[in-house]
Amino acid sequence: MKNIFSLLFGLGLLIAAPASAQAKVNIFACEPEWGALAKEVGGSNVDIYTATKATQDVHHMRAKPSLLAAMRKADLVFCSGAALESGWLPILTQKAGGPDVQPNTVGWLMASDHVPKLEVMEKADRSMGHVHPEGNPHVHLNPEYIPQIADFLADRLYQIDPDNAGTYTDNLESFKARWNTNLNQWKVQAARLKGTNVIVHHKNWAYLTDWADINVVESLEPKPGLPPTTSHLESLLQSVKKQKVSAILVAPFENDEAAKWLSEKAAIPILYLPYTVGGNANASTLEGMFSETFRMLSEAAS
Ligand SMILES: [Zn+2]
């Protein structure tokens, strides 16, 4: 009897093993930064589809067929949240998402749900522009949030794919060890940037400037999400003449016409920061993106 049982047990394992060994966790990442973090923690046990590129404005995407196809396969949806993707992500999950990747499930991970948010409003109306009433969603630019969000990601992967929990823990720990070494360097650079004045195009740098104690003196957008106007730029020009401003920060997907106009009139350099992974040639990883950002900011401030 014992032999028969062990034989059956052995056969059972043989039958079960190939399926579970091959199945990778399919991760649908809305933005490049979350795709990159998923790669760090998931390693070779995950397949990642990143829905947007650094050159695309994630505020304004369409729920196109390629995104629906990717959503259909997803085991985990990993995005910024706080309504950043409200114009397209709900359509994708409603039309093509399985029951395990809907809001409030294990397969639904919104980074901004797990870190303190800036600019949370008690009430917002259209007169304020295209604001994010749930708080500023651009949370990936606080370097201390990244390892915190990595912890939540690992926790979801443990639940979705418990067989590989050990690998996820190893990946997480080595990522965090490297991150902390870099973080010390970025803190040194940020300390020198403290009090520097910058102008932004949109309020998508808030977590970076807040963390590094950089002052955002003006936005080129008269209200969040509204394109710069001549009258707004004229008044900006008058006010920036009275203070020293180190740079105008522009993301890869932003129209830089207004920045160029002000840069010329007020003699303030434009900094085309990477903003996310893939935002420039040196920003191919999350670490590269932050290192490049602090390098460029330091150069502009000195
Ligand atoms: Zn925004």
Keywords:
alpha/beta; Rossmann fold; 2 domains; 4-stranded parallel sheet; globular; binds zinc ion
Descriptive account of the structure:
With 302 residues, this protein is of the alpha/beta class. The protein has 2 domains: 20-178, Nitrogenase molybdenum iron protein domain (Rossmann fold, 3-Layer(aba) Sandwich), CATH 3.40.50.1980; 194-301, Nitrogenase molybdenum iron protein domain (Rossmann fold, 3-Layer(aba) Sandwich), CATH 3.40.50. Helix content is 46%, strand content 11%. It has 10 helices and 8 strands. The strands form 2 sheets. The chain has a 4-stranded parallel β-sheet, with helices on both faces. Strands 6-5-7-8 form a 4-stranded parallel β-sheet, sandwiched between helices. Helix 9 (257-266) links the parallel strand 7 (247-250) and strand 8. Helix 3 crosses helix 4 and helix 8 (230-240) packs parallel to helix 9 (257-266). The longest helix has 29 residues, at 165-193. The structure holds zinc ion (ZN). Zinc ion binds at residues 59, 132, 138, 202, 204.
Q: Largest beta sheet: what is the strand line-up?
A: 2-1-3-4
CATH level-4 homologous superfamily of the largest domain:
Nitrogenase molybdenum iron protein domain
Beta-strand level of the residues, as a percent range?
A: 5-15%
Structural class designation? alpha/beta
Overall pLDDT confidence: 92
Identify the quaternary structure here.
Answer: single chain
Distance from first to last alpha carbon? 80 Å
CATH class of the largest domain equals Alpha Beta
Ligands: zinc ion
What proportion of the residues is helical, as a percent range? 40-55%
Could you please say which CATH topology of the largest domain applies here? Rossmann fold
Broad shape: globular
CATH architecture assignment name of the largest domain: 3-Layer(aba) Sandwich
Please tally the helical runs, counting DSSP H or I stretches of 4 or more residues.
10
Sequence stretches where pLDDT stays below 50 over 5 or more residues: 7-19
Q: Can you count the beta strands?
A: 8
Main β-sheet, in a few words? 4 strands, parallel
